[in-house]
Amino acid sequence: MIDAEGFQNCPMELSVGVGGGHSSTKTSFLDPNVEGRQHNRVVVSQRPNVRSDGWLEIEIGEFFNSWPRRRSPDEC
């Protein structure tokens, strides 16, 4: 059992974006022990997965890169 101290009862808004373009936002409980439920009229169904190394992970969004451009070492 994972102890997610402080995250038991409060859904969090998670967002990720790419360089001023597309962004994705989700609402989720960060405690993996909380089942999906409704909180203040917001339906929250996703919860983090416990990885084999004990860390938690959650999917925030998906992004498709249609142009695989290689960078030269001086661009990094």
TrEMBL record:
<dbReference type="Pfam" id="PF14299">
    <property type="entry name" value="PP2"/>
</dbReference>
<protein>
    <submittedName>
        <fullName>Phloem protein</fullName>
    </submittedName>
</protein>
<dbReference type="InterPro" id="IPR025886">
    <property type="entry name" value="PP2-like"/>
</dbReference>
